[in-house]
TrEMBL record:
Matching PANTHER family: SLR0254 PROTEIN
Protein localization: Membrane
Alphabetized UniProt keyword annotations: Membrane, Transmembrane, Transmembrane helix
Major subcellular site: membrane
Membrane topology designation: Multi-pass membrane protein
Record carries keyword Secreted: no
GO cellular component, one term: membrane
Residues covered by the RDD domain: 19-142
UniProt lineage: Bacteria, Pseudomonadati, Bacteroidota, Saprospiria, Saprospirales
Alphabetical list of Pfam families matching this protein: RDD
Bilayer-spanning residue ranges: 25-46, 58-78, 105-128
Entry keyword Hydrolase: no
UniProt-recorded name of the protein: RDD domain-containing protein
């Protein structure tokens, strides 16, 4: 599976699997259904309000504007996800490790016009299949890449119960309930990547995750496991026991 190495601002290298072409096409079709239904609902609402709407605008320019608005808004508010991307475990990230900005998402949305709408998707497929990082034209301009966020081998959060039976696991960090399942899946992926590729970069990624979680959960570093892997595993088990 093709991968991309992201250099974070902390000079840590993290490897991600780039999104598969089939997954990206599937996400696009899901989003297209959402776009169609939402646009029809919008037209109906405008009609019910009695607002006049030119047919040419509604049938030609309206859908183009709606596509740009949908992808920009969804990826911006959902941190690199759309409905289709979330369902198929895809996410947009920046190549420099920083969070994508609204301008990045707007560029990606605007370049959907030549990438997909005006070329029936052929330009996007051409760039994705021939480029080293699987980027379409909009990704190249915005310096972004679409990655797979699902864990290797289809492992899910519940699979971590196999590490140790939860009935015998005393909760150490109840504050973990403040985190979302998406947060814990990110932690899980850090662990899985380290166990799959136990190199220095992924060890440093675990250490950064530990430091960040200590800050978010207001925990004393001296009172938790010194090993990042053990600490993150305990957090995951605590989360499962408290939320399942």
């Amino acid at each position: 599976m093709p991968s991309v190495t992201i250099h974070t601002p902390q000079n840590v290298e993290i490897d991600y699997e780039t999104a598969r072409l089939g997954s990206r096409i599937g996400a696009w079709f899901i989003d297209a259904i959402v776009l169609l239904l939402s646009y029809l609902c919008c037209l109906y609402a405008v009609e019910q309000l009695g607002a006049g709407l030119n047919d040419d605008v509604a049938l030609r320019l309206g859908p183009v504007f709606w596509v740009v608005l949908y992808f920009f808004t969804a990826e911006w508010l959902w941190r690199g996800h759309t409905v289709g991307k979330r369902l198929l475990n895809l996410r947009v990230i920046r190549l420099d490790g920083e969070d994508p900005t609204p301008a990045d998402f707007l560029l990606r949305a605007v370049f959907l016009l030549p990438d997909v709408l005006f070329t029936a998707g052929t330009l996007a497929v051409l760039f994705i299949t021939t480029g080293q990082r699987g980027q379409r034209l909009g990704d190249l301009v915005a310096r972004t890449v679409v990655i797979q966020t699902d864990p290797p081998a289809g492992v899910t959060l519940v699979d971590l119960l196999k590490i140790r039976h939860r009935d015998h696991h005393p909760v150490r960090y109840p504050a973990v309930q403040r985190l979302s399942e998406a947060d814990m899946l990110t932690v899980q992926q850090c662990l899985l990547r380290y166990r799959r590729y136990p190199n220095r970069a992924h060890r440093e990624a675990l250490a950064l995750a530990r430091a960040r979680l200590l800050e978010v959960l207001a925990l004393d570093a001296a009172a938790v496991e010194p090993e990042a892997e053990a600490f993150l595993e305990t957090l995951l088990l605590d989360y499962i026991v408290l939320t399942r």
